[in-house]
Each structure stands twice: as C-alpha cells, then as structure tokens.
C-alpha cells in the first residue's frame, strides 16, 4: 500500500472550516459530486461520469480534534468498475488551526500504488475547491 497527502491552508478559523467539512454525510464541497447518502456509518457517493456509488465506511470521527477516518466499505465494487484489484483505501481528513484566523487541512490516503496518485490529485482538487468556497 502507498500513502499520499493533499493539503491546503485556508484563511478561515479551524472551527469554520470544520463546520463545512466535518459532517461525514455532506460532501457538497467536493467537485463533481452528484449525490451523497448517509446510512449509519456508511456514505454512498456518486460522482459525475460514474454509474455506481462508492461506499465509504466511517471508522472514527472526532469533533474536538477536527478529524475523521474512513475506508472503502466494498473495495471490490470499485475494483470491478476499473478492472483491477483494489485491496482497500483508507483516508483521514484533519483540520488544525494556524493561529486564530487560518487553518491547515490535511487529507491523507493509503491505497494501492496505481491508485494513490489519482486519489491524492482528486483530494487536492477538492481541497482547492473548499478553499475557494470558504475564502470567497
């Protein structure tokens, strides 16, 4: 398994950033999201151009430390769609304050080598969109 990180700094307090992204069931800040449905600890996300949902399972969620960790619930579904084996994918989002008016957002991913760069690129684009939304 390989690891990668997407990151950004947002000129907003950590509590403001966390209020936007801390709800596991709300991914409206991620570009190309068509739908998101939360059932218990599983969220089903459909992205533009996909004819199936990616189901992600929440492993941990900590509002105090502004972080959550999740994994693919059914990696075999994604594997069938792309035609390659995917033993899994885990990711963690963390928001930390940089003083009173700025925040760092980290999105760490661990998955198979052939997917890690693509996942990190998608995460980086999502964080850039988040920054644009919150700093507008």
Please explain how this structure is put together.
With 136 residues, the chain is an alpha+beta fold. The protein is built from three helices and seven strands; from the N terminus they run βαββββαββα. It has a seven-stranded antiparallel β-sheet. Strand 6 and strand 7 (103-111) form a beta hairpin. The longest helix has 23 residues, at 113-135. The protein is globular and about 45 Å long. The mean pLDDT is 94.
SS-based class = alpha+beta
How much helix is in the residues?
25-40%
Largest sheet: 7 strands, antiparallel
Q: What is the average per-residue confidence, as pLDDT, rounded to a whole number? A: 94
Low-confidence stretches: none
Q: How many H/I helical runs? A: 3
Oligomer: single chain
Strand content: 35-45%
The dominant shape is globular
What string, H for helix and E for strand, traces the elements in order?
EHEEEEHEEH
How big is the Rg?
A: 15 Å
List the defining traits of the structure above.
alpha+beta; globular; 7 strands; 7-stranded antiparallel sheet; 136 residues; 29% helix
Give a quick rundown of the structure.
Helices cover 29% and strands 40% of the residues. With 136 residues, it is of the alpha+beta class. Strand 4 and strand 5 form a beta hairpin.
Topology:
Elements: E1 2-10, H1 14-21, E2 33-39, E3 42-47, E4 54-62, E5 67-72, H2 75-82, E6 89-97, E7 103-111, H3 113-135
Antiparallel strand pairs: 1-7, 2-3, 3-4, 4-5, 5-6, 6-7
